[in-house]
Amino acid sequence: MKTFSRKQVRTYTNEQIENFVDKHGGEIITMNAGTLGLGNCILWFGKNKKVGITKEIYLNEWSSGQSLRLYNKIPAKYKKFIN
Question: What is the residue range of 37's domain?
């Protein structure tokens, strides 16, 4: 029988995400506000540069983390938030 495993997602703290944005000179654009963290955000570093998408991940009742995915260009469904 074939077994399937869930892909592990690396989680970051809010401070790590904010430090990453500060280090690379970008800004955080909030799509949906979070309850304990930053929520779902776009990390915008400027035109013709990489774009980051963060999503809030539930850890337990008292804390949450952030997942981060970088793209070479912004996906179409997120373009409406950049203006």
Answer: 14-75
